[in-house]
Amino acid sequence: MSSAGLPAIALRCHGGLTPHQCVGQAVAAERAGLSSVWFPENPYGRGAWPAATACAVATRRVRIGLGVFNPYTRHPTLMAMEMAAFDELCEGRAVLGIGAGIPSRVAKIAAADRPIAAVRDAVTIVRRLLRGETVTYTGKAFSADGVRLDVTPRRAELPILTAAMGEQALRLCGAIADGVIISNLVPPAFTRRAVGLVRESAARAGRSAPAEVIQYVPCAVRADGDDARRIAGDAVAAMLLAYEATASAATRAAMSSASGVTAEAFAQTMAALRRGARLDARLLTQYAVAGTPDECLAQCRVYAEAGVTELAMAPIGAHAVDDIARLGRALG
To answer: Which CATH number fits the domain that encloses residue 88?
Structure first.
């Protein structure tokens, strides 16, 4: 199948993977011609740095994205210090994502009642430090007083993206960021609306629209499409139940409101999943990329049509490297 009309295809190494597993997948992704490798970090799972650093050393071409760090567990000045050094290590391939974190988890260690201000402050401080400035900045959540990095960053304009789901966060992204990161389990219909809000906000701020729209999505790529959909359906059902309990209100709303079914039907689906039912095949297409390689590429095009520039896919199951290789062969 032709690769025309596709977003860039990237790898997402989730926090359930060990650093050694991430390296194996990252090397396979580079061999397959994928564009980037993304590393999420959520309290209180594995920190992203060991895997990201190991993968940076093991690869030469793919971008290495940290998506995302939150300023409650990592102060913006520390983010800047780490990213300056990391961009040296991976020779200019680093990308930084900043978000407010999962509210229910962040609340265990910090007063996270100003997430929009926290992200604005973090982006402002990190960007100015990476530009080599001496930063004196008093924010509503985070500040810096006469801080300057002791090293000269490799790049003054290292890309800084923000994770955004709610309307305020999406508008903030349009006003200050280089791109937006859209969560797992979010249907393309939501993404289309989110991209519109980001672009509208950028226009109001008198700046060009952020160039990058990254979306995370689970995937299963198999020679047998039915087998892929079965594996993906079981995994996505478990993820939906977990997100129902832990995700932000904005993420939960996006999961349901853009799913293509009524609120009542979605509630009935979730109740059925809690009883052990299988996920409906039609809903699976809203939350995952699954099937034969050609079927998966066709589904990737749907995300491109919604405005996604890079689709970061997390392989499901025990044979992720094989999935990555199949995808690479399909991409040509």
So the answer is: 3.20.20.30
11 Ramachandran zone, left/alpha/beta (phi>0; psi -120 to 50): beta
**Distance from C-alpha of 245 to C-alpha of 274, rounded to nearest angstrom:** 12
Listed ranges 96-105, 141-150, 252-261; the one with the highest mean pLDDT: 141-150
pLDDT of residue 63: 98
The number of angstroms, rounded, from the C-alpha of 42 to the middle of its chain's C-alpha atoms is 12
Q: What is the CA radius of gyration of the chain?
A: 19
Query: Is pTM, for the whole model, over 0.90?
Result: yes
Amino acid type, 164: A
Give which of 111, 85, 91 is closest to 100, Cα–Cα.
111
pLDDT over 60 (residue 2): no
Please tell me the total number of residues recorded for the chain in this structure.
332
- The number of folded domains in the chain is 1
The DSSP annotation for 241-259 comes to HHHHHHS-HHHHHHHHHTS
Q: State the Cα–Cα distance between residues 129 and 79, nearest whole angstrom.
A: 10
Q: Is residue 241 part of a domain?
A: no
Token readout for 41 is 């970090």
Structure tokens given for 241: 């139940």
Q: How far is CA 233 from CA 81, 117, 279, in A?
A: 41, 37, 6
Closest by alpha carbon to 173, among 216, 132, 213, 130? 213
Q: Is residue 277 domain-resident?
A: no
* Continuous H helices in 143-224: 167-176, 188-204
Are residues 326 and 222 in contact, defined by beta-carbon separation less than 8 angstroms?
yes
Structural domain includes residue 55: yes
